[in-house]
Amino acid sequence: MTHPNHPNVDQSDRVVPINLRQSGRTPTELLISTRVRKSPFWHLSHEAGCWRATVYNRIYHPRGYVKPEDGGAMVEYEALVNRVTMWNVAVERQIRVKGPDAEAFTDFVITRMQQKLNQSMVNMQSYVMRKAAFLMIQFY
Domain ranges in the chain? Predict the structure, then answer.
């Protein structure tokens, strides 16, 4: 018996890419849809030069700022590794942290000590502000 992911058919002479969904450019243009949301920072992404996007968590997510003729992804990678980059992280979701080590974990993750937060804030949202973006963590 063969495994469904490992067929016993000889494919050594195959010339078509194996994964058609993820290979190469397509002639298709991505249209703005009412079923997919724009993040609150979508317009700022375009002002910063965004020319390519994808859909993640039903939100348009900017994925390219430097055009290919100007160096493209390698220039962006160089900035990420050696300088500073800003990312639109509106596609990320809130998380709930529970359990015996939840407090220690959130102290490790956020930029301020969770134990020092007012006890009346327990079971409420806490925001870590950074200009126009924020990280929201809900404590339980």
Answer: 29-82, 95-139
